[in-house]
Design a protein that fits this description.
- By secondary structure, the protein is of the alpha/beta class.
- Helices cover 38% and strands 16% of the residues.
- The protein has 15 helices and 14 strands.
- The strands form two sheets. It has a seven-stranded parallel beta sheet with strand order 3-4-2-5-6-1-7, sandwiched between helices. A seven-stranded parallel beta sheet has the order 10-11-9-12-13-8-14, sandwiched between helices.
- Strand 3, helix 5 and strand 4 form a beta-alpha-beta unit.
- The longest helix is centred in the first third of the chain and has 14 residues.
- The radius of gyration is 23 Å and the shape is globular.
- The relative contact order is 0.12.
Length: 400
């Protein structure tokens, strides 16, 4: 099957040719006809399956052949990075098409806020927005979505994880009910099902099984205690010269502290987190893409908002709590022309059950190694073993 089989407009097919798109992915093959047929859709598909093009292409095609005024499509996403990424992809697809788009996200200065406001009032064809910033723009009462035809919720599960449920409902209540609604989510927890029942009308359903990590990724795990992790990291970096790597940690605070540790090891690194201003985040990402930095340190938000070729190593300083986040994380390596990469995970004694769940998800046992002798002994790997209950020390009470 090719994109010609969807009978898309010629100018849109020209954009696909220019971007090197040849054959549709499974999610594109199934979703594009449903969207062209104006049906609501709920699709379970993770990052890397081609889901962005699966909804952008049919929406662009419908905008081309319609007489549209004002905002035609609203795409809601969890992070600024994803908003920018989708906006960039839109610009590529619509290179030969007279369709306008703008990204609405927080973290910028007052000038960027006013620019975004003008774009909303003027009515760009497609708006890609994070819920929080869009809510703040809607408060003025000047933004209207009367002519909206399409609502897309991309990475809906992540938006709910980040606490955006109430914001989503507020936004959706301001939209016309006679619209096409498309929801894309990597997982389908109960909250997603609840939201689906509220905002979708008799939707078609597509479930693309989670893709396994690319064959070119060498996956390794090290058994270690928390106090051994920095020493183990120094040992690995001394043995291997990685030109480009991403290090994932569990919390924003740990991300910040690891920046100091890695700089002591001589790495050109920066931490990437929500406390940074948008201009700082964009500068860090550009420096990483241009090889001025060789290491990024971030949380799982980074795993869904970066698409950079040439990343040689993904290092999980902490095991992710959600097994699917592991697939997202290590999928940052072995991308594009770089068909090989390495993924290393540090497993402490408390995270063994989490790692066992990862292996069950990807249906593969990952080789596990002990720390070097100089760092001491490694924990024994036994994910079924319950952690011993620690009693509080007995303190006798003496009568005065």
């Amino acid at each position: 099957m090719t994109f010609d089989d969807f009978y898309l407009e010629y100018e849109l097919l020209d954009g696909l040719d220019a971007m090197g798109f040849n054959q549709p992915t499974p999610i594109q093959e199934q979703a594009i006809p449903v969207i062209l047929d104006n049906k609501d859709l709920i699709a379970c598909a993770q990052t890397g399956t081609g889901k962005t093009a699966a909804y952008l292409l049919p929406i662009l095609n419908k905008i081309i052949i319609s007489e549209h005024k004002g905002v035609n499509t609203l795409i809601l996403v969890p992070t600024r990075e994803l908003a920018l990424q989708i906006d960039q992809q839109l610009q590529g697809f619509s290179y030969f098409v007279n369709v306008s788009s703008t990204a609405i996200y927080g973290g910028g200065d007052g000038i960027s806020y006013e620019q975004q406001k003008k774009a909303l009032i003027k009515g760009a064809d497609i708006i890609v927005a994070t819920p929080g910033r869009l809510i703040s723009q809607l408060i003025s009462g000047e933004i209207k979505f009367d002519g909206l035809q399409h609502l897309v919720l991309d990475e809906a599960d992540k938006m709910l994880d980040m606490g955006f449920y109430d914001d989503l409902i507020k936004i959706i209540n301001k939209l016309p009910s006679n619209r096409q609604t498309l929801m894309f989510s990597a997982t389908m927890p109960p909250k997603i099902r609840q939201l689906t029942g509220k905002i979708l009308n008799n939707p078609s359903q597509i479930n693309i099984a989670i893709s396994k990590p690319a064959a070119g990724i060498e996956q390794i795990a090290y058994l270690c205690y928390d106090g051994q992790k920095i020493g183990l990291l120094a040992h690995l970096l001394a043995e291997n010269k990685f030109e480009s790597m991403i290090l994932f940690a569990s919390t924003k605070e740990k991300v910040k502290s690891l920046q100091h540790e890695l700089k002591r090891l001589g790495l050109r690194c920066k931490s990437f987190h929500s406390d940074l201003e948008q201009a700082e985040r964009e500068a860090i990402m550009n420096d990483f893409k241009n090889k001025k930095l060789n290491t990024l340190i971030g949380t799982d938000i980074l795993s869904r908002g970066i698409d950079v070729e040439g990343i040689e190593l993904v290092l999980n300083f902490d095991v992710p709590p959600d097994p699917e986040d592991y697939v997202h994380r290590i999928g940052r390596t072995a991308r594009g022309t770089n068909t090989k990469g390495t993924a290393i995970t540090f497993i402490n004694d408390k995270d063994q059950k989490r790692f066992d769940a990862i292996e069950k998800l990807i249906e593969r046992e990952i080789p596990k190694r002990n720390v070097p002798d100089a760092l001491g002994q490694s924990p024994v790997y036994n994910p079924q073993l319950k952690q011993p209950f620690k009693r509080k020390p007995f303190k006798p009470k003496f009568k005065k």
